[in-house]
Specification:
The chain is α/β, with parallel strands linked by helices and 344 residues long. The chain folds into 3 domains: 40 residues, no CATH class; 133 residues, Response regulator (Rossmann fold, 3-Layer(aba) Sandwich); 137 residues, 3-Layer(aba) Sandwich (Rossmann fold), CATH 3.40.50. The chain is built from 12 helices and 12 strands. The strands form 3 sheets. A 6-stranded parallel β-sheet has the order 2-1-3-4-5-11, with helices on both faces. Helix 1 crosses helix 2 and helix 10 packs across helix 11. The longest helix is centred in the last third of the chain and has 17 residues.
Length: 344
């Protein structure tokens, strides 16, 4: 087992730069008595050495804050609310408090939040990555300090950080296969504009189902979007302009699927007769929209509980990897509703 690196203090920075600890302290507090160049040198050295600003001196003495951070892409879905409820139940039973933060699916915001969580000396971190995150370098400071980190839903493969997710390839394959079995020949796929691991896996499932049914992939049917409600409306106009039009749509989240359906209905498209629809996540709106939306259901509460239990396990048994392959696959199921049933 690797020894965790020792906590960096202002004295370490002072020694490295050959200046006094008092100067380092003032520089880090942006005091006017320290010149700009020295300030810059101190800040750069602090960052390079992995210094954590002492915002909670008592935590430093105890080396424990009893606070866990969670970073999610967005809090605006029932799925994510359920995840957080599951996390909170486990952490509360174990005597930990939770700080919740959302990256709004922006990598830049995610980087800043990660740094803030680190500076606030969280004991552990739970992360569901932003859609446009293409590497997880900004979480390496946690790994180096042996601060437990568990990914969930949108995960990053890392030998020291377990991930809790569903089999996105299989789930997307099942959705596409269902649409094909309903007689769909041209299935549009609404995905993320930047292919995250989740979007990539769902695209792979879509593609494999087409291949297994001897249907070729048509790039013009793959719509890369921001996956928002507004993006769904825009996708509807792209679909209306297609020649010939698709007879099926598989969107990788429900919010986008629902707004796309609504917009198409306003333009006289009958669902599912003209275009069959399927989404993903089983959010509340999926069972409110008419016709009800076919989607993939997986349990947020259970996923949150599993991720939190893994984190607690890492905190109680530091350095011990407790997951054989570092990946826990949660079950998911295809929920078939009227939006996709062409064949009664």
């Amino acid at each position: 087992m690797d020894e965790p690196e020792k906590e960096i203090t202002i004295y370490d920075i002072a020694k490295k730069l050959n200046i006094s600890a008092a100067t380092v302290s003032r520089a880090l507090m942006d005091h006017t008595s320290v010149n700009v160049n020295t300030k810059q040198r101190v800040v750069e050295a602090a960052k390079e050495m992995g210094y954590r600003s002492n915002q909670m001196a008592s935590n430093l003495r105890k080396r424990k804050s009893n606070i866990i951070g969670i970073i999610v892409g967005n809090l605006n879905s029932s799925f994510m609310s359920n995840v957080i409820a599951g996390v909170e139940k486990v952490l509360s039973d174990a005597g930990y408090n939770l700080i919740i933060s959302q990256s709004l699916d922006s990598i830049q915001k995610e980087v800043n939040i990660a740094q803030a969580m680190y500076n606030n000396r969280v004991d552990g971190l739970l992360v569901s990555l932003a859609y446009d995150t293409e590497n997880a370098d900004h979480f390496e400071t946690f790994v180096k300090r042996n601060i437990p980190l568990v990914y969930f839903d949108r995960v990053w493969p890392h030998p020291k950080c377990p991930g809790v997710e569903i089999d996105n390839v299989q789930a997307a394959y099942n959705v596409t296969q269902h649409l094909i079995e309903q007689g769909c020949k041209r299935i549009a796929h609404i995905t993320a504009y930047k292919i995250s691991s989740v979007a990539a896996d769902r695209f792979k499932g879509y593609k494999e189902a087409l291949e297994d049914n001897n249907m070729s992939l048509d790039d013009s049917l793959v719509l890369k979007t921001q996956l928002t409600i507004e993006a769904g409306r825009k996708a509807a106009h792209d679909i209306l302009a297609m020649e010939p039009r698709p007879d099926g749509v598989f969107a990788i989240n429900d919010a986008c699927a629902v707004s796309c359906m609504q917009e198409l209905k306003q333009h006289g498209i009958r669902i599912p007769q003209d275009i069959a629809f399927a989404g993903f996540n089983n959010d509340t709106e999926a069972s409110i929209i008419e016709p009800n939306l076919t989607t993939v259901d997986y349990k947020g509460y259970e996923m949150g509980q599993t991720a939190a239990k893994l984190l607690i396990d890492r905190l109680n048994n530091p350095g011990e990897a407790t997951v054989a392959d570092n990946k826990l696959i949660q079950p998911s199921e295809l929920v078939i509703r009227d939006s996709s049933i062409k064949k009664k």
